[in-house]
Every structure is written in structure tokens, then in C-alpha cells.
Amino acid sequence: MRFRVLTACLFCGFFLLPGQSPAQPLVAVSIRPLHSLAAGVMEGVGDPELIFKSGASPHSASLRPSQARLLSRAGVVFWAGALLEPHLGKALTAMETGHILALHRAAGMVLLRPRPAGTGEFPPFPLQGRGKVEPGTETGSGGRAAFDPHYWLDPRNARVMVAAMAKVLALRDPPNAGAYRKNSLRMGKALERLERELAARLAPLAGRPYLVFHDAYQYFERRFGLRPLGAIVADGLGQPGVRRISNLLRLIRSRRVKCVFTEPQFPARILRALTGEAAIVRGVLDPLGSSLKPGKALYFRMMRQMGESFRRCLMAERP
Ligand SMILES: [Zn+2]
After folding, report:
1. What's the gap in Å between 84 CA and the centre of ligand 1?
2. Domain boundaries, the chain
3. How far apart are CA 313 and CA 311, in angstroms?
4. What is the CATH number of domain 2-196?
5. pLDDT at position 282, please?
6. Which residues surround ligand 1, an ion (CB under 5 A)?
7. How far is the CA of 213 from the centre of ligand 1 (A)?
8. What pLDDT, on the 0 to 100 scale, is given for residue 133?
9. 35 vs 267 pLDDT, higher one
10. Helix 177-202 and helix 32-41: axis angle, to 10°?
11. Cα-to-centroid distance, 157 and ligand 1 (Å)
């Protein structure tokens, strides 16, 4: 009997863990914020597995053998798409697993165009990218990315993702469909409250100039009326060039930038080179919640932490 169940599982892509019913798929989720949303949807039913536990930059993280094994056992995979996670994308196309959902494809997602980043300076406000991008395409004209892949930082997108996750899980695990739906409705309400709370906290910061470390925050910034002037490094690249640095220094002086953000994933020495002499407050933004315990509360903590980082840096006493 045991043998038969295991044989069946070779074909159905399910893997049995203690506490899971045979019909319940193993759910694997790539990065912490998305894993957190899935954990909320699955509350009381099971726990999703987190593929990238370390919080390393998903732009460059490659798949370890243990992570590849996890994927091969998974019945459902939620991930952010190949624009954010190119290495995971390669692994997923090579495998035959159950249900794979790149969450930017969920119906109703608001996707924004990437901002031009050659010189480090963003286009004047209102930000370019007003035009929404249709989900489904990842590369636009000239092979450029069709959208900015840090889309989970808009709580409205989080609501869309939660609903999409609940639908997929209900399809793969019909006996628990009711629980997934109920959880997703509860999560949706909590995300609405989070948005209102952050909007109130961040309203006083509108229009204050700052620089971010890499251009990961436009979903958050647009939702809450924040106005960055530029980014220090381009996505996925470690070092800004000489031209970019001199351009950013000019920007810091001419626009009286008093706040520059770094990120836990990136080396601080680039920031020191840039802000060493200027009287500038350095903040930290963590778009992955990499210092937080994975689980359903992580997304909410990460967003609040981000909001408080913006407040601390932008409302600091001007040196
Ligand atoms: Zn990024």
C-alpha cells in the first residue's frame, strides 16, 4: 500500500509530509514576501516551503541542489518570474512539476515599466511608467525588461496575489478550498488596513528628495506618494560607473538630498564612497524582509519596517 502511494506520487508530483493529507500538495515559494502571503493563505491547512531562505538578492541567487530537490517534490510553485529570478526560471523550465504560477501573471496585477537608470537619475515626477504593462510579456522592445519586477511592494498587488494563490491552491487541493478562500479574504482585509495605515504614516514625507540603493521601490513609492531622485546601482550590478557616481554627487548637491538608502544585500562601501563627505542620513531599506522571521507576519512587518525607515531617514533632523 505504502509502495503504491509512493509510486502514485512519482506521477502526481505530490510528496507526503507528516500532517499532510495525501491530496495536499507541497507548496514551494521563492522569496520571503511571497512566501509570507502564501503562509497566510494556507493558515490552518499547512506550511509552504521557502526556496531562498538566506534572503540573498534574487537577481543573482542560483539554485543549490537542496533547493532543486525541493522544487522536484513540489506540487505547487509560486515565484516572482524570470525578470526577478532568472536562475530559478531556468530550473523551472527544466522540470515537470505540478502547478507553477509566476505571480506577475495573476489577473489584476498592476505592473509598472522599469525606469531608465543609465545615469542613476530617475525621470522627473510624475514617474515614467504611468502606462500599465499587460501581464504575460516579460521582455519589451529591444530585449529590455517589460516591467519592474519588484511588484510585491504595492499592498494592492499583494491582495491580488493572495486571491490568485487561493485559487491555485483550491484547484490542487479541493477539500481545503473553503479554508484557502476564507484565509484569502481575511488577508485581503488585513492588507487594506496595512495600506491605509502606511498612507497615513507616509503622507508627511511627500516630495522630500532621496536616493535609493537600487531601483526596487517604485511600487511602494507610487502607492504612497514618495519621490526618489535616483538609484545608486543598476539592478543586478554591483558597482556604479564613474559617470554614474559623478552624476549622483551632482544630484545630491543640487537637489539638497539629505537621505540615501542602502540595503542589507549590498556592500556598504559604495554608499560610503558616495556619501562620505556630505551631511547625509543613511537609511536601510529591505525589500525582501531578509532580517525577519519567515511566516505569515513577515510581509506586514517588512512593509511597516520600510515605512518607518522612510520616516526615520526623511524626517531626520537636517544635519
Ligand atoms: Zn531588485
Report:
1. 7
2. 2-196, 204-314
3. 6
4. 3.40.50.1980
5. 85
6. 216
7. 10
8. 58
9. 35
10. 130
11. 17
DSSP tag of 265:
T
Please report, as a single letter, which amino acid is at residue 311.
Answer: R
- The grid cell for 310 is 522612510
What separation in Å is there between the alpha carbon of 107 and the centre of ligand 1? 23
**Contact predicate 83/138, CB 8 Å:** yes
Query: What integer pLDDT is reported at residue 66 of this predicted model?
Result: 92
So what's the pLDDT on residue 136? 56
CB 211 within 8 A of CB 248: yes
Give distance in angstroms: CA of 183 to centre of ligand 1. 29
CA angle 135, 140, 146 (to 5 degrees): 50
Q: How far apart are the CA of 237 and the centre of ligand 1, in A?
A: 10
Looking at domain 204-314, its CATH class is alpha beta
The per-residue pLDDT for range 68-116, each reduced to its tens digit, is 899 988 999 999 998 899 888 888 887 666 789 999 999 999 998 888 7
Contact between residue 216 and residue 230 where contact means Cβ atoms under 8 Å apart: no
Q: Which three cell numbers stand for residue 155?
A: 499592498
Measured CA to CA in angstroms, residue 100 lies from 46, 109, 114, 120, 128 at distances of 18, 17, 25, 35, 31
Task: Inform me whether the pLDDT recorded for 167 exceeds 90.
Answer: yes
**Distance between CA atoms of 63 and 7, rounded to whole angstroms?**
27
CA distances from 207 to 142, 203, 287 (A): 33, 10, 21
Distance from the CA of 252 to the center of ligand 1, in angstroms?
Answer: 22
